[in-house]
Structure formats: C-alpha cells, structure tokens
Amino acid sequence: MRRMLVQGAVIAVMLWLATSDFANSRLPEASPSGLEPAAGTWRATPKGLSSLGPAAFLEAVLPKIKATPPEPRLTERIVHVRKGDTLMNLLLRADVPRSQAHLAIEALRKSYDPRKLKPETEIALRYQTVPAHEKAEEEVKASETFDGMRVALRYDLDLVVARNATGNFISEKIERPVLQELVRAGATIETSLFEAADRADMPTSVVIEMIRAYSFDIDFQRDIRSGDRFELVFERFLDEEGHIVHNGNVLYAELEIRGKALRIYRFSPQKGIADYFNEKGESVRKALMRTPVDGARISSRYGKRRHPILGYTRMHRGVDFAAPRGTPVLASGDGTIERANRYGGYGKYVRIRHGSRFKTAYAHLQSFANGVRKGKRVQQGQIIGYVGSTGRSTGPHLHYEVHEAGKQTNPMRLNLPTGLKLKGKTLTAFKKKRSELDQQLADLPLQNQLASNE
Ligand SMILES: [Zn+2]
C-alpha cells in the first residue's frame, strides 16, 4: 500500500514538470519559506500526497528533480528605438549586460549599420529564461540570458541576431513573407477631400500620395466642389495571418471635378523613378505646384465662411489657401530660398527663386521649417514652413504668390508646360501597363462605396 502511494507521488511530480509551471508549484511540505503555494498547486495534488511524511516524500522525488532540470523557455520583449538612441543605449536600458550587448552589436554590424536605425523601429529582444528550481539541496533562482534580437527593418524585412551552435552571435537579414493585394476605394466629397477620405476609411499615407500627385494641376481651394468624387487603387500588404502590415503606393487615381475625370497612373520609366502619368503618358509633375500646401487639410466650407477674398484680384495679387494652423507648406518647385524672415504685413515670409523666370512667395506662416533660410536649396514638395496668421491676416491661411519675369502673376492662370512626355518604347511600355491596370481594376470591387454614400 505504501509503495503504491510513493509511486503515485512520483507520477504527480512528473506531471507538474510536464506542465512546465514548476517554478510556481513549489511543493508544500518541502518549502523552507513556508509560503503558501498557489491555489492551483493544491488542487493538482493527489489526495495521497499529503499523508506522506516530508522525508519519505523527498526520498521519492529528489532523484527525479535532479534528472530533469526545467527546460529553458524563450521569451521576447518588445522595445522601440527612441529619438537619439544608439543600439547600445537601447540594449542597456533593457538590462542586457554590456558585454553581451557589445557582442550582439558587433555581429549585427556585419549585415547592417546600426546608425541607420530610425526612431520608432520595433525590436524584439529574446531571452532564454530558466525558471527557479532546486538542484540537490540548493535552491536555484530564475535566470535570464540575452539570446539575440529581431529588428523590424521594414514591414517585409527582419534583421535577426541569434546565437549559433557554439554560442556566438551571428546576424542575418530575413525576408518576412507578405501577401500583396490591390484595394479599390472611392468617396464623394462634401466638405474636403480629406474629410471624404476619412469617411471612406482610406489610409492617410495613400490619400497624401494622391493629393501630392494632383497638386501640380489642381487648386484644392477653388477647383474642388461638394459633389466631386475620387477613386483610387492602392497596394496593401498582409502578413500570413491576414493582418494589414503596410499600405503601399497608389497605382491609379481618378479625380472627377464637375463631371470631368482626371486619371493618373503610377509608372516607372526605365532607369527612372516611379511617378504619375496621365492617360497620354505625360508626367503630372510640373515646374510649379498649383497647391503648395498639404491639400488634404483645405476645406472649401471653412474657406468660404472665414475668407471673403480667396481668389486672385489685382489688389490682392496672390491666392489664399485656408487651412488649419500648422498645416505644412511645400516648396512649389525646386529652387533657392531668397528670403525667409518677417516681412511687414506678410508676417513670416518665404520667397524662392526657381531658375531665371519664376519666383514664388509664401506669407503669414506660423513658423519656418528646420534649415529654411536665405541661400538654401529646396526641392519641390519639401516642407518650408507651416500655415499661420502672422502679419496682416484675419485667420490662418497661406497667401501664395507667383512672380513671372519680375511681375506678380495670377497663379491660377499660370499655364506651365507639362513635364516629361513618354516616347517610343517607354510609351509603349506605359500603355501596356495602363491597360493591364485598367483590366485589373475593372475586376476589383469598389470598397467603402457604402460608407461614402451614407
Ligand atoms: Zn492673401
């Protein structure tokens, strides 16, 4: 009878080990601290065990414990790169011993320059955790060994640092499998393009890309009316579990203004950078933008209520874009900054020279962007400042002027030549790509249609 009880106890202990929660399931009678074990432990104890004396119990159980130390577990802790962080800082902050951190970084350097890590990058730190257990008579505390890390370089690319068979750190870039799908979404504009996009649940990055592409042709303050509509097709990437990991580029967009549709296609000419082209294969990019402000933030309703003068008049000599304070103002074209300071009634003011013929000016700014000062080169679309109401101004807006050959000119009437026109083989390639895309999107259901009609 006694023998059977002992066997029962051994089996019970082995079951505990198998459930791997051995650290918390300290044996009641063997516990030197006399701490109450977790309630679950008691329940898992077979009735016969408590009737066994401590000495007899240990005699039966100890050999088993010695033979089976707890299995180390792999745990992950997620941390993020902070502004101004070095990888060493980050690892030390996560309590990785300096020597280990140093070896891991040395290994990582073989596949990547850690100085390129951007703030917000997610890093999963891996540890081997050995739970507390008892070895012969001594008690062994829980221990943690730094085992490596996984740096999310991109939505589809990881940089992995791990130990090899001999325990040394090695590193490798590993592609994460992603699925690509095309999403077609559309909306009807009521107050602003951004509001419509928001209502239709379109990702911000995608909407901004579309707006930038149309900013060369469209005056988002005056051209867009309530009832106009737009549609776009963009790439979306999903992980193996179907979660969205990244929204990619806009491949096609259609903006319908008072019944007239403007269609643009994303295309990469050979050796060239991907850009947007109209149906005829002409780049949408022009020397100057018609809307040199984040067009998404412009609300026509807002503009009408607060700004009686929004168009060009002889007296006014510029166009105004009503947008909330802090909205980014963009350099209308490539050029050199001639002025970036306070300038009388214009308030904070920037003027840019674009070649020999054109200049553009931006007034009433709240502030200048970093590095914007006289003599600096700027690129088209670069943020130069933020919408404000400095100088003689009644509310936050951008006052924009275009000067042509020394004279102020109406930016709305400005007829700039189109940029790059695709020719020959490139044009043929574009047309092929265009019809492929047209075909693809004919088969795509229009998402968010209901949302936009509500
Ligand atoms: Zn103005």
Please characterize this protein's 3D structure.
The chain has 454 residues and is an alpha+beta fold. The chain folds into 4 domains: 2-67, no CATH class; 73-175, Nuclear Transport Factor 2, Chain: A; 178-285 and 422-454, Nuclear Transport Factor 2, Chain: A; 287-416, Glucose Permease (Domain IIA) (Distorted Sandwich), CATH 2.70.70.10. 23% of the residues lie in helices and 33% in strands. It has 10 helices and 22 strands. It has helices at residues 2-18, 39-44, 54-67, 87-93, 98-109, 193-199, 204-214, 300-306, 424-442, 449-453, and strands at 73-80, 122-130, 133-135, 138-140, 143-154, 157-163, 169-175, 179-188, 229-238, 244-257, 260-267, 275-278, 319-322, 328-330, 335-342, 348-354, 358-368, 377-378, 383-387, 397-404, 407-409, 446-447. The strands form 4 sheets. Strands 13, 14, 15, 16, 17, 18, 19, 20 and 21 form a 9-stranded antiparallel sheet that branches. Strands 12-11-10-9-8-22 form a 6-stranded mixed sheet, sandwiched between helices. A hairpin with a 5-residue loop joins strand 15 and strand 16 (348-354). The radius of gyration is 33 Å and the shape is elongated. The termini are far apart. Bound molecules: zinc ion.
